[in-house]
UniProtKB/TrEMBL annotation:
Its EC number is 2.5.1.-. GO terms for cellular component: cytosol. Mg(2+) binds at residues 38, 225. Catalyzes the condensation of isopentenyl diphosphate (IPP) with allylic pyrophosphates generating different type of terpenoids. This is Isoprenyl transferase.
């Protein structure tokens, strides 16, 4: 029996990343992938390193995954980098996290420009330090004419805060006569959200084994396909992203209806 298993294992062809990319590109690709990049702290703890070492490593993964997403012709990659709840963390960790966009863009902006990546951001600017805001703004301006992957950072982002802000804006417009209550529908509401310029995520990935949403894109993920992995974000590889896309391609998205084949019966 053992021999049989070993034979099966050794006869299995190792498929390279390039071949897998080629295969994946033959089927419909998710237009928008959103990732809850979690597990940096645990990655560092396992190595007896400070939590910030995990965040630093996580930044390197962002670069790798961005480049692959661009290669896969994905339209939008939204990365949850800092939630409205992450301010609860110790000041030195918050300060470090708020320094990362500047460091990331300082290192990789030329490459992003070269690769035709367009940087965007969702989240509330109000508490973000001036130096971080400036670095992100510079990247947004310098990549504004790019037509490739939209790399959308969710920074000081919270799904509930976003919905509440939209409700306030809608209320104002109704009050001042610019909007009729009967015109408030899914599409109109979406236009008041920070993501008004993006389509909803088709695929939502969360790393680190946590099976929750943690206040991320609550409205937008209504019909997203969910994919969870135990892998910690700093251990996430290109092969994992491809695995998630392959899983997505095997799903049947019905949006509450029935599969188109069945409807013919
Ligand atoms: C994700 O990693 C990064 C942010 C939330 C900013 P964590 O820092 O949450 O890592 P864990 O979950 O504690 O391992
Ligand atoms: C979600 O991770 C936020 C980000 C990845 C930026 P958290 O680590 O903050 O989420 P919880 O606390 O485990 O729900
Ligand atoms: Mg976490």
């Amino acid at each position: 029996m053992l021999n049989k298993i070993n034979f099966w294992k050794s006869s299995r062809k190792t498929v390279s990343i390039d071949e897998r990319i080629e295969q994946v590109l033959k089927l419909p690709i998710p237009k928008h992938i959103a990732i809850i990049m979690d597990g940096n702290g645990r990655w560092a703890k396992k190595r007896a390193l400070p939590r910030i070492a995990g965040h630093h490593e996580g930044m390197r993964i962002v670069r790798k995954i961005t480049m692959l997403a661009n290669r896969l012709n994905i339209d939008t990659l939204t990365l949850y980098a800092f939630s409205t709840e992450n301010w609860k963390r110790p000041k030195h960790e918050v300060d470090y996290l708020m320094g990362l966009p500047e460091e990331f863009l300082g290192n990789f902006l030329p490459e992003l420009i070269e690769e035709n990546v367009k940087v965007c951001m969702i989240g509330n600017n109000n508490r973000i330090p001036e130096h971080t805001r400036r670095a992100v703004e510079k990247a947004i301006v310098e990549t504004s004419a790019n037509t490739g992957l939209k790399l959308n950072f969710a920074l000081n982002y919270g799904g509930r805060a976003e919905i509440l802000d939209a409700v306030k804006e809608i209320s104002k417009d109704v009050k001042n006569g610019n909007l009729d209550i009967s015109d408030i529908n899914d599409e109109a509401f979406s236009n008041y959200l920070m993501t008004h310029f993006l389509s909803d995520p088709d695929l939502l990935i969360r790393t680190s084994g946590e099976l929750r949403i943690s206040n991320f894109m609550l409205w937008q993920i209504a019909y997203s396909e969910l994919w969870f992995t135990d892998v910690l974000w700093p251990d996430f590889t290109e092969a994992h992203l491809i695995e998630a896309v392959e899983a997505y391609q095997r799903r049947s998205r019905r949006y509450g209806g029935i599969h188109s084949e069945e409807s013919k019966k």
